[in-house]
Amino acid sequence: MKRYADVLLRQEGIAKSVNITGLDKPKIEDIVVKKWQTIIDLTAKIVDVPSGLIMQITENSMRVFLKSDNKGNPYEEDGSDSLGHGLYCETVIGNNAKLLVENALKYEEWKDNPDVKLNMISYYGLPITWPDKDFFGTICVLDNKENSYNENFKLLISEFKTGALPVSHELFEIRRKLSPFLSARFGVIFLFLFSIIRSNVPLYFAQRSFKILFALVGHHQAPDRLRRTFEINLFELSMPPLPIWKPPRFNAP
Question: How does DSSP assign 68-124, residue by residue?
Answer without folding.
Answer: ---TT----TT-EEESSS--HHHHHHHHTS-EEES-GGG-TTTTTSGGGGGT--EEE
